[in-house]
Specification:
- By secondary structure, this protein is mainly alpha-helical.
- 84% of the residues lie in helices and 0% in strands.
- The protein contains 15 helices and no strands.
- Helix 2 crosses helix 12 and helix 4 runs antiparallel to helix 10.
- The radius of gyration is 21 Å and the shape is globular.
Length: 292
């Protein structure tokens, strides 16, 4: 009853309703992007762009500019750099993302060390502060949500074909390269929009983990999107509620909950049983061949 009373009291605050709405929209947007990223085997893209957004916000804070502006600019610059560098260079996109991750990581901590005033706001950008989400932050999160979900719904067949095989999609005339660039743009926008609530060093986990958990439970792409969105939203809501009740960093709790969901999904994954049965069949076939 005490817990229920605390929850009802929490919902009585308008700012908490805004925070929960931001958690819902941000969790869904990050998770849907995560499905695209994981399906195309580009898991490092979330990490690279989230660190670019974090570096941009710290640099902007150091220069006296709105940190969100810096986060958006740097995340989109990083997204714009990954595609052409990977296409023109003789190395995989992961290599480019690793270089960008290292460079932006160094820039973030360099400028953080140069900040002469209180570093509280800069630390909030690192670890997140969902309870401090403003009306402007909520609008930006809503825009990123509409962009991500709208793109997947409108171009679902094209997305499905490109995810299945990028080379075949190119051969039949689908703009797979443009889709790759659009994915980088959506990732940059989503990461920057959720920087304030989840944190620059943690938001990449919300992009990857709910999608990875959903991937353990289904082979169907539509179900994958829906499960990932559900896991992302639940992670954000539970993280926000626990953060409010026990006064702990919100972004860290969201990441830990999403990680716990992944561990549970992995433990009870039907895919593990299928792989185990396939392994047993291969052993039986091998034994039969040796006997014959």
């Amino acid at each position: 009853m005490i817990l229920l009373g605390n929850l009802m009291g929490m919902l009585g605050y308008e700012f908490m309703r805004h925070v929960l709405l931001a958690g819902l929209l941000g969790g869904v947007a990050c998770s849907v992007v995560g499905v695209l990223v994981i399906s195309m085997e580009l898991s490092l893209v979330g990490i690279a762009i989230s660190h670019a957004a974090f570096a941009g916000s710290v640099i902007a804070f150091f220069a006296g500019i709105d940190p969100l502006t810096g986060a958006i600019v740097c995340s989109l610059l990083a997204a714009a750099a990954i595609g052409p560098m990977a296409d023109r260079g003789e190395f995989s996109p992961d290599t480019v993302m690793g270089v960008i991750f290292a460079m932006t990581h160094g820039l973030a901590f360099l400028f953080m060390g140069m900040i002469a005033s209180s570093k509280t706001q800069a630390l909030n950008l690192m670890w997140g502060n969902a309870l401090g989400v403003s009306a402007l932050d909520l609008k930006i999160i809503l825009i990123s949500f509409i962009l991500v979900v709208g793109t997947v719904i409108l171009f679902y067949k094209e997305v499905q074909a490109i995810i299945f095989n990028r080379e075949i999609a190119l051969a039949v005339g689908l703009p797979a390269s443009w889709f790759f660039y659009a994915l980088l743009f959506l990732t940059g926008t989503t990461v920057a929009a959720n920087l304030q609530s989840i944190g620059g060093l943690l938001v990449s986990t919300l992009v990857i983990t709910p999608a990875a958990a959903a991937y353990q439970l289904t082979y169907n792409l539509k179900h994958l999107f829906c499960l990932a969105a559900f896991f992302g939203a639940i992670s954000c809501w539970l993280g926000i509620i626990l953060s409010y009740l026990i006064d702990v960093p919100c972004g860290a709790v969201i990441v830990l909950i999403s990680s716990l969901i992944f561990l549970l999904a992995n433990a009870f994954s039907p895919k593990r049983r299928v792989k185990r049965l396939q392994s047993l069949k291969e052993v039986d076939v091998g034994a039969s061949e040796r006997i014959l």
